[in-house]
Amino acid sequence: MLGLGLGLGLKSNVGGFSLTNISGLVAWYPFNTGHTLDGVNLVSWLDSSGNNNTLFNISATNKRPTVSSGVVDWGHTSGVFMDTTSLTPASNEFTCFFVLDVDVTFSSTRLSRLAVKTGTTPFEDALLWGTLSSSSTNQLWQWYGNEFTDTNYRVSTSTSDGVIIKDTKTIVQYTRSGTNFKIETYQNGASKTQVLNTTLSNTSSTFEINRFGDTTQEIDGKMNEMAFFNRGLASDEIDKVIVDIKARNSMT
Q1: What digits encode the pLDDT tens for the residues 177-196?
Q2: Alpha helix locations (H) across the chain?
Q3: Of 221, 70, 74, 97, nearest in space to 171 by CA
């Protein structure tokens, strides 16, 4: 087994800024940093936030992402996933960032469970994205805050805005701040797209996750970086995070 524990005090090249400079960071898995490999398979991914929320997959050796030149590919087999023992962000406010480069096609309905909370009720909390149907190029964006069947805690939208382009690096940002919930995307070479901006009718639920990917569904592509804050970041803070993530992931 080859351990690649690379620089946990990670800085970008943007003025020495680090995500750790912003309060509320609870977990951060940067591009090409902290990977422990078994051959090409990702066994663990260290948390650079300082909170020790390491991602791991010890038991399901046939359901691990592969890594090549720092790129984490979650779509090499059905149901690839990574877990963490701590529930993150465990808050009723949050900001989550995912760097995706997916092999999405519109030939079939496809749903990516980017982050979920597993437990007695499967997937109590979840951030999801996927295609709607074989005849639609629109996207389905969902957040479940309290079980799939509880519509009081569900935010869903289908829109042509924010469609993820095949094999194109894209940052997806979910923000819950008070009664406001937003989904925004940043495709490589493009400006920000607001996919959803809505007022929540029920804000009492917390958001907790402990699995990335899923044992039955796959992300179907690459997810190279993730960051999670336990509060809704201000717009200027989000701008700094996006610039930093783009620089690290060679995005413009």
Answers
A1: 988 999 999 999 999 999 99
A2: 235-248
A3: 97
